[in-house]
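USER: Note each token:
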Amino acid sequence: MRHRVRGKKLNRSASQRRALEKGLIRSFFEYGKIETTLAKAKFIRPKAEKLVTLARKDGLSSYRALLSYLQSDKLVKKLKTEIAPLFMGVPGGYTKITHLGPRQSDRTEMATIEWSKTAPKAKEEIKKDSKDKKVVKEKKAKVAKVTKKEVKE
């Protein structure tokens, strides 16, 4: 039984898994979209999203934590200046995995992992919702007043 056993092993030793994860995440941050197997895409998704959440924070400690993981100042700057600002108002779900079907040679399920396209829209929608909530509350208050008047009459 696999009780409390977390994560996939991907048929590799621990050091090979860490190297694979770091390499895939670096490529993902550099290119914005990568095509890989479905298992590997699902494997890197949580770590990539945690790194984006860390990049959203200001401060030296978050910068150093990103630098220690990515080991590339260029990637850390790209993550903090280009990618993280897109998701400032979004609580999570920064990536999207799209199934591509089986690979021709060995029938392994392939997928692409990319940034979700809804990020800038989601940020605008949050702003609109906060404005709309005020409008909705005002409308509800007007409706409540009208119904109270109708009830009294």
